[in-house]
Design brief:
Strand content: 35-45%
Number of helices: 3
Low-confidence stretches: 1-41, 285-294
Helix content: under 10%
Order of helices and strands: EHHEEEEEEEEEEEEEEEEEEHEEEE
Number of strands: 23
Distance between the termini: 24 Å
Structural class: mainly beta
Mean pLDDT: 87
């Protein structure tokens, strides 16, 4: 077992498609023929409100969108809304739209203490009024421990288990801390291209001496697409050991050069726990979405203008604590992945077509022959990463 330290991403909007499924899918018996649900337009164009107030001083954010078609998941912003957050002490905060569909307001530490309840009121540009119930912010303890275990998971082939590492967290609360907790995770990893930039053609030939490694190493950050919820209400102590988080296998470059996990532990209300736990059941059911009846997930938002129209999403208040865990390459885990580089290719007719300073063709010399490389072989930024080392990355 190996231990160390670990912070909070944004799992919220990713769940709106799951919520749409949960509200409309019917139970399907096991069958061979694929099933594609017929979703009417009134099921698609529902308002989705996702946001929370935390005890962390800074901008508090809410997103307002429309649910998208199942076959075309995307964020459809709802712009030009009036958004007001109110607490149970009579204070109110007006949120500004800082980009399409996203609203935020700066709140000082004195305004966001645990024990305070918050609600949200929204008026859309067409006059629709949406309100949430009050949600009271509980107290969260510091994160006890976050760690991982090298693990092999059996597959259908006994000789080919899924190899990787399993993450765990220990929850250590007391009588003042919430028995309802949720973890959201953000992963960052380093990855490399197959080649540095040595030769390229942009209308004329260029040789880099020494080779250009500026686009050879990148770092990518993603939210872990799972929901992790825990209730200790029925336990003797407000504690839990070895709560399983996510599993990272050796089939990608995630663990090849360095991996960092930012974990945020959120204390949530009982109502928020039941909402997110049902999202977890729908989203993470290992038997598949069509193998059991999905739960209808009802949030705490209401359409005051048209009560018959359902509002998807949830607005809650949470206290948050965070840790970051860094994992260097593991000596006891052999990597088994292929990169995105298709490898050197012979020069064929037309290989120069379209080459320009803004669109160079990368080249490599192997055993005296000049070969063509696709862009992914030399430019790590094309895999949606950044070639600037994060501030938290170790030297």
């Amino acid at each position: 077992m190996q231990k160390q330290e670990t912070r909070y991403p944004e799992i919220l909007r990713k769940c709106r498609l799951t919520m749409l499924f949960a509200c409309i899918l019917l139970f399907m018996p096991a069958c061979i023929k694929s099933y594609f649900p017929d979703i009417s337009s009134n099921e698609i164009n529902k308002y989705v409100v996702m946001g929370q107030i935390t005890d962390q001083e800074g901008f508090q954010e809410v997103s307002i969108s429309l649910s998208s078609p199942v076959g075309e998941p995307k964020f459809i912003p709802v712009k030009n809304c009036s958004v007001i957050v109110t607490d149970d002490k009579g204070n109110y905060y007006v949120l500004d739209e800082y980009k399409s569909g996203y609203y935020h307001v700066w709140m000082s530490q004195s305004s966001i203490t645990p024990g305070t309840a918050f609600k949200i009121d929204i008026t859309t540009s067409d006059g629709t009024q949406i309100s949430s119930a009050y949600d009271r912010m509980p107290i969260v303890p510091e994160i006890d421990s976050v760690y991982f275990i090298r693990k092999d998971i059996p597959t259908n082939n006994p000789n080919n288990p899924q190899k990787g590492i399993q993450f765990y967290v220990d929850y250590n609360g007391n009588s003042l801390n919430s028995p309802y907790v949720m973890w959201v995770l953000e992963e960052t990893w380093e990855y490399h291209t197959a080649y540095p930039i040595t030769y390229y053609f942009d209308g004329s030939y260029h040789e880099m001496s020494p080779p250009d490694y500026s686009r050879h190493i990148c770092w990518k950050t993603l939210t872990v697409d799972n929901v992790f919820t825990l209730s200790t209400k029925d336990l003797v102590d407000n504690k839990y050991k070895m709560f399983p988080l996510h599993f990272v296998d050796n089939k990608t470059s995630r663990l090849a050069y360095g991996y960092s996990l930012l974990i945020k532990q959120l204390a949530i209300s009982e109502a928020a726990y039941h909402y997110w736990d049902q999202i977890r059941i729908n989203h993470c059911n290992p038997s598949g979405l069509y193998q059991q009846q999905p739960l209808a997930v009802k949030g705490n938002l209401e359409n005051k203008t048209r009560p018959e129209d359902e509002i998807l999403g949830y607005f809650n208040a949470s206290s948050v604590r965070s840790k970051r865990l860094f994992i260097p390459p593991l000596v006891n885990l052999e990597m088994d992945y292929t990169d995105f580089c298709s490898g050197p290719q012979p020069m064929r007719r037309g290989w120069k077509d379209g080459a320009s300073p803004s669109n160079p063709v990368y080249l490599v010399v192997i055993e005296g022959s000049m070969l063509v490389l696709d862009d992914l072989c030399c430019d790590c930024r094309l895999q949606d990463g950044k070639n600037v080392k994060p501030d938290f990355w170790p030297n």
